[in-house]
């Protein structure tokens, strides 16, 4: 199995055998075509499942008893005569269904002789970290097919939320220049968001409200707005990298953007970014920013939406939150006085996403600094090192932080296995990574089952190519 359960009791030498057509009684949440597609994929496209809906959080195949509903997570029982899953809610039932899929072995696919087996066992499981988020950037190079593949894979890996950041790749009604000419429409992207929700993966919109106003990576010098409409320069600082938050037109535009994204996404969270605001920023600048963030958070709260922001601009220096540390931290506030100002003024309703990519030793002191100052906190690792993932997972578990946000940025072709590693460490009780090469191969096997590519080379795996330019 890809993810090892809390409890696994095998029945030696016994299997449940099924063929080309399977009937199931299932929670209405599973009575969706996408779960039938997953079944088809995990059965080498040679078996189909037909769901009969029920209002209970159960799934029954064959002759199987209905199991008691657990207090947490799910129970999966496989006997020679049938399969039974019971769960505390529909989301955990989906996880139980994924565990069932992950145990299917294909024996024969010849038409009329289709044969599959699942070893008899009882599995009880629940996630160690309850809120397991993943962040996906939609770049101009990102295809809708890849986004769909990533969403399906993230759902199968038991992530609970997906934060989606459009790097100039979503067309807004409020300002045409917010997107490149090849950007997706809302109607392009809406089916993917609906699919994510059906899979139990709640989508979260992200739009940068301070730094990263270019909607492009700084090293490449592009600016989605100013490269198309230079007359809009007053919306930004002199470099264009940061939004001008003293301009009322900037604030009005941000409000329109938020409303459009909330209408498209729905959900309970909005990520406002606010990281890496480069430049010589004064105390006045920080007062403007913190007042603005508080106003935005209050407005979102009135809509029933929680605000998430990155934490780097709120931190000054390691010495201000850790006496001695071997971890290298990203702390971009200009002084300890500014840090104290921000800690005093920033609303505690705001959830802090503490990205610390080179913190390799437990605990992550910056996360504890925010927690000790009254904030709810996410640890946010990246694919720089397995030690960072492990330290982040352990910090969240042992200090009861809000959860994990695994970030992916521009490195998914190399970093996709880390997405799997983080999923494993966030779900399982242990914090140790799995064997990397085996996990990489296993993850690839899952991807081709949840999102078949019909033989298209560029759609296969998680990268369009296997090697870069060889000319």
Can you put this structure into words, describing what you see?
Helix 3 packs parallel to helix 4 (186-198) and helix 9 runs parallel beside helix 10 (412-427). The chain is an alpha/beta fold and 471 residues long. It starts with 6 loop residues before the first strand and ends in a 21-residue tail after the last helix. The protein folds into 2 domains: 7-125, Chitobiase, domain 2; 132-458, Alpha-Beta Barrel (TIM Barrel). 45% of the residues are buried. It has helices at residues 33-42, 90-101, 144-156, 186-198, 248-265, 283-302, 336-345, 365-372, 386-398, 412-427, 436-450; strands spanning 7-18, 21-27, 48-54, 58-62, 74-78, 82-87, 105-108, 115-125, 132-138, 161-166, 202-206, 269-271, 306-310, 351-355, 377-380, 403-406.
Gist?
It contains eleven helices and 16 strands. It folds into two domains: 7-125, 2-Layer Sandwich (Chitobiase, domain 2), CATH 3.30.379; 132-458, Glycosidases (TIM Barrel), CATH 3.20.20. Helix 1 (33-42) crosses helix 11.
Attribute tags:
2 domains; globular; alpha/beta; 471 residues; 20% strand; TIM Barrel; 11 helices; 8-stranded mixed β-sheet; Chitobiase, domain 2
Main beta sheet: strand number and arrangement? 8 strands, mixed
Separate helix tally: 11
Let me know the average pLDDT.
95
Derived from helix and strand composition plus strand pairing, the structural class reads: alpha/beta
* Ends distance: 41 Å
The CATH class assignment of the largest domain is: Alpha Beta
**What is the H-and-E element order?**
EEHEEEEHEEEHEHEHEHEHEHEHEHH
Specify the CATH homologous superfamily of the largest domain. Glycosidases
User: What spatial form do the alpha-carbon principal axes imply?
Assistant: globular
Q: What's the quaternary structure here?
A: single chain
- Helix percentage: 25-40%
| Radius of gyration from the alpha-carbon trace, in angstroms | 24 Å
